[in-house]
Structure formats: C-alpha cells, structure tokens
Amino acid sequence: MTEKMIIIGAGLAGSLLAIYLARRGFSVDVFEARGDMRKGEVAAGRSINLALSDRGIAALREVGMDEYMLAEAVPMYGRMIHSENGETKLLPYSGRKGEFINSVSRSGLNIALINEAEKYDGVRFHFNEACVDFDCNSGVVRLGSGNRVSGDTVIAADGAGSVVRQAMEHQIPDFESYSVFLEHGYKELHIPGRTAGGSPASNAKRSPEDRFLLDPNALHIWPRHRFMMIALPNFDGSFTCTLFLANKSVPPAATAGTDTASFDRLTDENSLLNFFDREFPDAVPLMPTLVEDFFTNPTGQLGTLKSWPWHVDGKVLLLGDSAHAMVPFYGQGMNCAFEDVRILDSLLSEPGAVATGSSVDWKVVFEQYAALRKPNTDAIQEMAEENFYEMRDATADRVFQRKRALETRLERTFPDYFSKYSMVTFREDLPYSVAKERGNAQDRLLMEICAEEENTEDIDLTSIFTDLQKLQLEEIGSKR
Ligand SMILES: Cc1cc2nc3c(=O)[nH]c(=O)nc-3n(C[C@H](O)[C@H](O)[C@H](O)COP(=O)(O)OP(=O)(O)OC[C@H]3O[C@@H](n4cnc5c(N)ncnc54)[C@H](O)[C@@H]3O)c2cc1C
What CATH number does residue 315 fall under? Predict the structure, then answer.
C-alpha cells in the first residue's frame, strides 16, 4: 500500500509526521512556506527554546529520536521564583526523582526532524512553497508558485495562522473557528553565557556552574502579577528570557502603580531601564544587550484558537497548532502536537483503518482521531490559559507556595500521587482531559488545606492522601 500524502508545513509537527508516515512506507511531500532553516534562514520572532516533556518525548521515542534530542537538552527540575528584592526560591516540578522538563532548541529540534525524515526515500521537502488555497471538494492544494498538488489526503500542519483552516472556514458552512488573544504580548530577550577566555572546544568542556550565569537546571520566573518574565537555559550557557506584558496600558484610573506597565509605554531606553531596574533588578546586570534586544526583537502575540470540524471527509485534516493553538504557559503546545502525531499514527494500525482493498480509509481514521483528540486538546488549551495566572500571580502567593511544597512531599511519600502539573507533564499515558478534571479536584482540596494551615510540615500526609484517593473514587463513580 503506497499512500501519497501531502503535508502542509515543515514545522515541528509536520516534520515529525513526515517521519511517522514514511516509516509506514507512504510517499510524503511536505510543502513549507519558509526557506530551508538548515541553510541559516531561521525566522526571527519564534521562541528560541522550548520545554520538551514526556508526551513529546514519547512521540519522539517511537521514531528513535528521543535520546538524540535529549543529548543537548538542559534539564529543568523546578520553577525558580525571583522576588522583587532578588531572593530566589525553587519550587520543584515533582517530588519524584527523574521527573523534570527539558529545555531544547526549537530550530535544533526542527532541523533534526527534517534531517531524519529526509533519510527515507519516500519523503521530499519543498521549501519556499507556501500553500495559498485548498479546495475542500477536490482536495487540491494551490501553491504560491502557481502549482497545484494533490494526494490521497492532505494533512495541514501549517500552524496557528493555517491557510488550510481558513479555506475550510470559507467552504464548509458549519465550520467553527474562533481565536481569543491575550491582552499580553511577549518579547524575547537574552542572558549570555559566562564568558571564558578559552577556545570553543575547551569552553564546551566547562562545568554547567562555570557556563551559566543563573542556575541552569530551573525555569526561572519573575512573577509580577500583571506581567512576568521567564528564562529557559540554552545548551551553550545562555538563557532565553521572555517578557510577557500587556500590549496597551489599562486606563490609570482603573489601576495603580506598576499595573500600568505595558509595551506601549516602554518607548525609549529610559522608560525601559526604569521598568527593568524596578521590576527585575537581579536580572538587569545579566542582560548586557537588553536595550538592543528589546527594541530590535518583535513583540509576539498570544492566543487560543479553537476550530471544528478538523477534517473534511477523508480529504484533509488539521493537526497541531493549525487545529488548536494555545498560549504557551503549560509548555505543552509542541508536546500536544507531537502527541497528535503519535495518536494519529496509532489509529492507522487499527483494523478499521484499511478500507476494502489495500488503501487507508482516511475518513474513518480522521473521524476517530478527531473524536479522541478534541476533548483532550480543549482540556490542555484551558489549562494553559489558567496556568498563565498561576505563573504570573500564584507562584508568588504564599498559599500556593505551601500547596506546591505539600504536593512535593505527597509525591515523595506516595508513588501513586500525581499533582495536576505532573499528570499533564509526566504522564503520557493519561489523557489531558483526565489530568484536568482530577487535577482541579485535587487542587481545590489542597488549596483549602493550605489556606488554613500555615505550617504544612506538620500536616498528616496519610490522611490527606486518603482524601485524595476518595476524590479519585468519586471521579470514577461519577463516570459509571
Ligand atoms: C513564546 C512561545 C513559547 C512556547 N513554548 C513552548 C514550550 O515550552 N513547549 C511546548 O510544548 N510548546 C511551546 N510553544 C508552542 C509551540 O511553539 C507550538 O505549539 C508548536 O510550534 C506547534 O507546532 P506546529 O508544527 O503545529 O506549528 P508551527 O511550529 O508553527 O509550524 C508551522 C509550519 O508551517 C509553516 N507554514 C505556515 N503557513 C504555511 C503555508 N501557508 N504553507 C506552507 N507552510 C506554512 C510555517 O512556516 C511553519 O514551519 C510555545 C509557543 C510560543 C509562541
């Protein structure tokens, strides 16, 4: 059976999908709007590094790419909270050993996936070939070059601004698509590695402490309520910082003081440095190119995009951000897109996937896929939005900090206890929707306890664990 597949977009999901489909012996043509990033044409304004966690790793593992990617990843064991006075506090992601997230280079990962896909004879990448339209009746893709291409089916992995999704929106009467943008945008900034006089080869051998200006094994957060900055380590010793800030100032009458900080108020060096000196005093000395970076780098926008249906008969399927872009605050957009690919591939092994004869019944496969994935992508999209407020506000809140400490102790003591964060991040066997429902119930109980109890060290863990287990039994009972 040689299916002829068309993939739109050679980003993270499209490139991984090409590998999965090629392994099945399918012929795969990938059309990418941008130039070949292996030739140095990496677009500005895209996140430079990303947090890769278990769902993404599981998808990479199936195609033998996990160890390769993790070799140059920097493990992050928790959130390092930076308060206004420069004090830091580590909130571990998990109480269990071996549960951490990994900072990886976006372009490094994307290039590795393209290189791997190209090892298969059946895969061809076509760069600088943007899809400009898609015909839902014929399944024909129109390219910017004027060429028209078609295959047995088309999978659109063309990201949040998907042209294919927009074509579906125009052509399918019941198509629903809506996006909600945050009032906050983001800007990437830079903390360089510790400089050393030696050669690049000798520098690479230096210990992490010797290469990084901040603790390399944490995701750093400067939570400031209406805005925040985060920093993720890069393998070369530098950090990529991301400032999340309102695009426009709210009317001063409605708020007070620093609440009015916004991108539109940081218009010159003076206002920028005043803001950073006041809000992030411990970071400023580490950011020698702050002014240049701030005024050169683009301000990105953040939003949640939902769409439905994701497929038209067996002709086309939306996958990854094109179907369900989310805000980046759970570090799951790419992990979820990789999970999409793994689940889609697993359905191709189901008996019903093959129609009479030998070809794949894409209509059946896409229907099953969409029904399975939609409740879960809805769940992670909602959790990602909630996590913005958790990172921005709650990480600085004492009750929340006590709750995280209690959860860490619970995880250390009871191997069967998983916090919501752990279920989302470290349990690839658990659907996002279950993680959300169970996690919210647990959070309500633990927040109540921590609001009343200032000293969580004295709390009887066994009785809490029993109450948490009861919640799980109630959840199972309510589904019967
Ligand atoms: C600031 C920020 C930080 C993030 N951090 C994380 C994180 O830590 N962890 C995580 O898991 N996720 C993170 N994400 C989310 C993650 O980046 C996305 O979910 C992921 O890139 C989705 O992959 P994708 O392949 O669906 O889309 P994309 O990666 O956007 O790829 C789409 C591809 O399609 C191409 N394309 C677009 N239009 C066309 C067209 N018309 N024709 C042909 N090709 C086209 C694009 O050039 C691109 O190569 C973050 C996102 C942002 C914005």
Answer: 3.50.50.60
Atom 35 of ligand 1, residue of closest alpha carbon: 9
445 lines ligand 1 (CB under 6 A): no
Distances (CA, A) of 295 to 275, 287, 298: 14, 14, 8
Q: What is the DSSP letter of 194?
A: P
Instruction: Please give the angle made by the CA atoms of 214, 12 and 17, to the nearest 5 degrees.
Output: 145
Residues lower than pLDDT 70 in the chain: 1, 41-47, 196-205, 208, 251-259, 355-357, 480
Query: Alpha-carbon torsion 224, 225, 228, 230, what sign?
Result: positive
CB 187 within 8 A of CB 240: no
CB of 424 sitting under 6 A from ligand 1: no
Q: Which of 269, 293, 317 is the last residue of a domain?
A: 293
In terms of domains, do 333 and 277 share one?
no
Looking at the CA of residue 322, tell me the nearest atom of ligand 1. Answer: 26
Chain segment 143-189, per-residue pLDDT in tens: 999 999 999 999 999 999 999 999 999 999 999 999 999 999 999 99
- Are 165 and 289 found together in one domain? no
The answer to the question of residue 96 being in a domain is no
Instruction: State pTM to two decimals.
Output: 0.94
Does ligand 1 have an atom closer than 6 angstroms to the CB of 186? yes
Measure 322 CA to ligand 1 centroid, in angstroms: 9
- Does residue 324 contact residue 308 with C-beta atoms inside 8 Å? no
Range of the domain at 434: 397-479
